[in-house]
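note to self — DONT lose this again. spent like an hour looking for the file last time. sequence + predicted structure for the chain T wanted, 151 res
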Amino acid sequence: MENHGPPQPLPYEGVWRFTAPAVDASVPQARHAVRDLLHRQGVPLADDLAQGLLLIVSELVTNAVRHAALLSPMLAVEVAVGAEWVRVSVEDNHPYRPTALETDHGRTGGRGLLLVREITHEAGGVCDVEHTSSGGKVIWAAMPLKPALPS
């Protein structure tokens, strides 16, 4: 007797979400929580992809802490893992949608989203900013689990 039901998800597939206060201490806590989650679930990530993903988490949480904390005292981090991709996102309730993706060489900060975009594109992924139904925003980056083939 054959099983014709839907394919069973791989053991590492799923969506995990946690919230944190929009304070500096949440940056390393979020990075460590994502690292531990990926390890615990056995997500098949190459080391460079894992490091890039953790850097993205750090940058996105830092942005939320620096720019949204006044209007959004809490932020949410979500990790979604499919059979062939991983997506991280950070959501806050501040309505400002960042557009500063170009480097301003006169500033010492402000390059976080540019770095997120570079890491994501280098891995063959995509990133974007979307408005949420509550009036805030979510910034996300999705990357393939397998390394992108050179074009």
